[in-house]
Amino acid sequence: MQNISHPKHSLLDLRAAIDAAVTAAHTGAAVLQSYAHHRADLIIDHKARNDLVSQADREAETAVIEALHSRMPGLGIVAEETGGVPHGPATWYIDPLDGTTNYLSGIPHYAVSIALIAHPGTPMAINEPIEVDTPVIGVVYDPCREELFTSVYGVGSWLNGRRIACSRTGSLAESVVATGFPFRDFSFAEQYMPMLHDAIHTTRGVRRMGAAALDLAWTACGRYDGYWEMGLAPWDVAAGTLILREAGGVCTDMHGTDPWPKGGDVVAGNPQVHKALEAMIAPHLKPRKA
Fold first, then answer.
1. 113-123: b (≥16 Cβ within 10 Å) or e
2. Residues 57, 29: contact at Cβ < 8 Å?
3. Hey, how many other C-beta atoms are within 10 angstroms of the C-beta on 213?
4. Which has the closest alpha carbon to 244: 188, 176, 130, 167?
5. At CB < 8 A and 24+ separation, what contacts does 131-137 make?
6. Separation CA 252–CA 191 (nearest Å)
7. Most buried among 188, 250, 256, 266, by the most CB within 10 A?
8. Residue pLDDT, tens place only, 77-107
9. Tens of pLDDT along 218-266?
10. What angle do CA 198, 204, 207 make, to 5 degrees?
């Protein structure tokens, strides 16, 4: 890609960014897998109820950040364990271990999730700066299955180098949908439980696997037809949002207020199922607290 001047930001090099994110994801996953066969020896801290962190999370995050810094300096970083704030033309959102409870329990369903969010004024192509915060790079790597989901804004999504597309299922009655139960923040349980009740009675099946990034990636490649969850963090959904969107799906903030579901309340699916899930959710959803 060309480097051109822009009144606010130079053109963001998405080719370099996807290469950096893939390298960083593999680096982080190598740390996780180095601990995988002796998880009982991990030192585990409790950040809050049902919210665990181990040195595997922390070391993987450090490895990811170092890899991104070395390849793409000057961008912001927001990471689950070390924090950070958005700044610069774009910001990395990093979850070094999505599915920590699965990982610590020996359940082989977890991933490294890395996304790049471009900020307003950052051009994605000549004379086409974006107007709102937009995911432009998404990488979700499942080291247990060796499945690498990647996505580039305006270009597409891939699984291990093969282009993917969301399902064409036309109704909830024919759909298998994914969700996540309240697990650390139970303040929205009275909204969520009626949604789950409706989904159980109106879909072909509901699955709860415990890793939001993989839920979105699996929806993108058609394993699930739709997905909804509440109470997540922005790094949980940033990469998966783009992967699904570039696979022809729709991924939005449940409340319709944010350009991507950084508030943690996400509804997603192919266009038909997304619309049906929104209709299922709407009667039970309360306005987001300021």
1. bbbbbbbeebb
2. no
3. 31
4. 167
5. 132/259, 133/86, 133/259, 133/260, 133/262, 134/259, 134/260, 135/238, 135/239, 135/241, 135/242, 135/245, 135/260, 136/12, 136/14, 136/17, 136/90, 136/242, 137/14, 137/17, 137/18, 137/21, 137/239, 137/242
6. 18
7. 266
8. 999 888 899 999 999 999 999 999 899 889 9
9. 999 999 999 999 999 999 999 999 999 999 999 999 999 999 999 999 9
10. 80
Burial class (CB in 10 A: 0-12, 13-18, 19+), 107: middle
| Strands lying side by side in the sheet with 76-79 | 76-79, 90-98, 111-118, 134-142, 147-152, 156-159, 162-163
Strands 205-207 and 90-98: unpaired
Q: Select from 249, 276, 278 the least CA-distant residue to 172.
A: 276
Whether 241 and 149 have beta carbons less than 8 Å apart is answered as no
